[in-house]
Structures are given as C-alpha cells and as structure tokens.
Amino acid sequence: RVHTGVDTTLVAPVSVADRRAWFAEFDTGRRPLWIYGSADDTEVLAWLSLRSFYGRPAYAETVEVGIYTDPSAQRRGIGRKLLDHAIAHAPSLGISTMLAFTFAHNTPSLGLFRSVGFETWGELPRIARLDGVPRDLLILGRPL
C-alpha cells in the first residue's frame, strides 16, 4: 500500500516479506490483528491491530489502535465493525485505554473514531511531511 496523502505515511510499496516482523508482533491473546476478508476470503478488505503503547509496564493496559480499509471497501461500515469488535473484546485482553494516532486532515478516520467515543487528547503540529506538505497528527483516546 502506498501513501495516498490522507491516511498513511507509507511512501513505497510494502511486500509480505517486508511485513513479516510486523506480523510476528501480534498475539491473539493480548495484542491481536483482526482481518476482514472478502466474501470468498481471497482478499483482505480491512484490518485492525492492537499494539502495546510505549512498551513500559505502567502502560500495559493501553494500546494503540491501527486500522486500514482498502479504498475499494471504504464507506461500507467495515472499519466500524472492526472497531466495535475491538472495543467489545478489549476488556478480555486486559485493555483499559485505547489510543489512535490520526492525521488532522483525515476526516473519515476522525469521524470513525469519534463516532465510537474517542476524543482528541493531543496534537503534534507539523510532525509529518506528506507530498511536501507539513501535516498535524492528532492523538485520540478512549478509556474503557
């Protein structure tokens, strides 16, 4: 997946081999990666990941939510289904707080997170440069 200017900082194609270490970080009992596939299970339409935040013991109950929906599957409620699923399962995973880091100009992502109770907890102004444009990053949070 390559950067579109709205939703990701990836600026070059990523192969499965490039992502092996990333996949290995997930643990279904603590920090899962959920996949939403096509009806025939031949395509990944969306995914949602829960990753540990900051890596220190005091933050053990806090996760960062990562979510991606393929452009062909956007605006169909798939991201919302995945996010609702994650929120429902978070307590059984020992999670009490969820964070999301979203570009301030990514209106669809902000709307999705806010629709399930995430609020803006912080802003990192001009922290990224996409296509030569400085971009702000918002920190969204939701206690469970």
Brief description of this entry?
By secondary structure, the protein is of the alpha+beta class. The chain has helices spanning 16-24, 78-89, 107-115, and strands at residues 33-37, 44-52, 62-69, 97-103, 119-130, 133-143. Helices cover 21% and strands 36% of the residues.
Report on this model:
The chain has 144 residues and is of the alpha+beta class. 21% of the residues lie in helices and 36% in strands. The longest helix has 12 residues, at 78-89.
Overall geometry comes to: globular
Arithmetic mean of pLDDT: 90
Q: What structural class do you assign from the helix and strand content? A: alpha+beta
Order of helices and strands: HEEEHEHEE
Share in β-strands: 35-45%
Radius of gyration: 15 Å
Trace the largest sheet across and list its strands. 1-2-3-4-6-5
Q: Span between N and C termini? A: 31 Å
Main sheet summary: 6 strands, mixed
Uncertain segments are: 1-5
Helix content: 10-25%
Overall number of strands: 6
Number of helices: 3
Primary descriptors:
single chain; 144 residues; alpha+beta; 3 helices; 36% strand; disordered N terminus
